[in-house]
Amino acid sequence: MKQLYNIYCDESCHLENDKHKAMTIGAIWCPDDKRKLIFQALREIKIKHGLKPDFELKWNKVSMSKIDYYIDIVNYFFDNDYLHFRVLVIPNKEELRHDLYGQTHDQFYYKMYFDMLKTILDPQNSYNIYIDIKDTQSQQKVEKLHNVLCNSQYDFDKKIIKRVQQVESKHVELVALADFFIGAVSYLHRELTTSKAKLQLIENIRQRSGYTLKTNTLYRENKFNVFIWKTGYGRK
């Protein structure tokens, strides 16, 4: 019997001309039967630190005043074997040459989504994929991504990739957790240094993961997987 997993996705600085150097796309994934347990635990961590249960976990909200809360979030992730993370980093969007590959930046964005997700997928299991909603026009692209992923796995009846759905991160705890870790990796690769709290959390993640976050992990790293995309790889 296939194990059902949920994959929760988000990205940072994905727009072509947003004046941010690095682009990151990533995902948290876990067994579906652990979902409610994880959601409840994340809310309990908020309450422990005097926050409301509906407080939204977001990297751009990180501050030193709540540093103990964020450290507990990092530790909760690394202390639980059923939580996993993968991030794909495009270090410098200015080096992209979409014209050479006959593509728009928007098409490249979805190709990168595919590259990020394909390592997670195992044909012996099945998956629901949840993506943070961006705009009212993106549903068609999400449906296309679903089809591309299914075709890549010869999953023409959608038994492996059962669903690709847009959700709002403020209502889905694990999309918010994905935002948090993606934001940390993005902050590092954008070479920002203005927030002491964010730098402390990045160092905490480095220590817990055992990785610098600046270079690739092994392809099959299953806990905190980092892939640095290089222009020379090419995308057709």
Topology, number of strands: 6
Lateral arrangement of strands in the main beta sheet: 5-4-1-2-3-6
From the helix content, strand content and strand pairing, which structural class follows?
alpha/beta
> What value does the Rg take, in angstroms?
17 Å
Largest beta sheet, briefly?
Answer: 6 strands, mixed
**Per DSSP, what share of the residues sits in E-state strands of 2 or more residues?**
15-25%
Unreliable spans are: none
The protein's oligomeric status is single chain
The helix-strand sequence is EEHHEHEHEHHE
- How many helix segments? 6
Shape: globular
Distance between the termini: 36 Å
Fraction of helical residues = 25-40%
The overall average pLDDT, rounded, is 87
What does this entry look like structurally?
- By secondary structure, this protein is of the alpha/beta class.
- Helices cover 36% and strands 19% of the residues.
- The protein has six helices and six strands; from the N terminus they run E-E-H-H-E-H-E-H-E-H-H-E.
- The protein has a six-stranded mixed sheet.
- Helix 4 (139-152) links the parallel strand 4 (126-132) and strand 5 (161-167).
- Helix 5 crosses helix 6.
- The chain is globular.
- The relative contact order is 0.21.
Structure in a nutshell:
The chain has 236 residues and is of the alpha/beta class. It is built from 6 helices and 6 strands, in the order ββααβαβαβααβ.
